[in-house]
Amino acid sequence: MVNRSDVHYFGAGPAPLPTAVLERASQVLLNYKDKGIGLCEISHRSPDANEILADAKNALTNLLDIPDDYEILFLQSGGSGEFSATVYNLVSIWVEKKRAKIAEEVGDDKAEVVRRLRKVVDEELKLDYLVTGSWSLKASQEAARLVGAQHVNVALDARKANSGKFGVIPPEAQWNLTPQTSGGGPALVYFCDNETVDGVEFPAFPQSLEGDDAPLVCADMSSNFISRKVDVRKYAVIFGGAQKNIGNTGIAIVIVRKSLLPPHSTPASPDLLRELNLSVGPIVLDYPTIAKNNSLYNTLPIFDVWVAGQVMAGLVNTYGAKRIGGQEEISDGKARMIYETLDKYPNVYRVVPDKAVRSRMNICFRVHGGDAEKEKDFLAGAEKKGLLGLKGHRSVGGIRASNYNAVTLEGAKTLVAHLEEYAQSS
Q: How confident is the model at residue 254 (pLDDT cuts 50, 70, 90)?
């Protein structure tokens, strides 16, 4: 039998979890707080469940220094569900603001309001997408499916600057963002902070999205959540599936600016959206509804929230005043060690993305130029050393070492030793 201590898992997600958290989880699954029932059996509306939610929120707030004017939501949508949720929620807010402005001009003439509003939607509604990899591409495609391709502005398609493949982020001067005019600008600007499949990570927040007239920025941080410092104030919405750095598969976490929730913002009515031929989202993706009900509008998987809370609390206890900066130092150190080894043997290894945008979380490379048999040999040798989950995504192939928080320094060093040994024997 293979023991857990014999294995270092580099899978891209679901990803490894801290062993101490899994050991505690095995206990609470059977008997939570000596109540005689397991955590998966307690009511999601019980005081215990509310305590678990509060603890998870507090830990995340502490780690990322989230300001008071942001709300934390837990949903069952996964990151892909949030592709839809951000569109539903922010388009609805954009539409209602336009409706209110028109109503001020024309008064109670509802037909005239709708007529003018329809023209404004047809001519002005835009959602900007920075497409730098497979997940941001899917997000832009979902937006086009929901509101129509004519309303989706792919402000950046990184493939155009890299011979049809992802792996670079062109300079911001080359992006084609919707202008911020006195009348508004885009309903949102979306980007994926770290592309799991393609190994591309934004090195910093884009300067062109900052400033007093900044648009509403939505970032998918599914695969680099709680791995580095984040200036939350620069974002309208941050979201991510939990199954990379935070917990097990089953929940998505959303950090949303409170000014986008009632009473500060009002979404357009479903009837109005239908009149405008715009999608009406399911209520389980409606941020105001989820926020009003403390993420408990429907039955939230409390066990999944408990796991996420335990992982985040562990980081709080480990790094103290450093907060997420402590984890950032570890993550950066592991990634640097692996990349330096890959770069040391250019005749054997080729890192796929451009050096300026290499992901700290998902290290994608080819062996001997992508020779299928040699990559198979590399993976077989790694498996013998207990290095698992290194096969690249099925859409791009190659090798991918996912350097998530629960990958230990020992695991990274073991991978480096295999890289060295394989290169020297090739």
A: very high
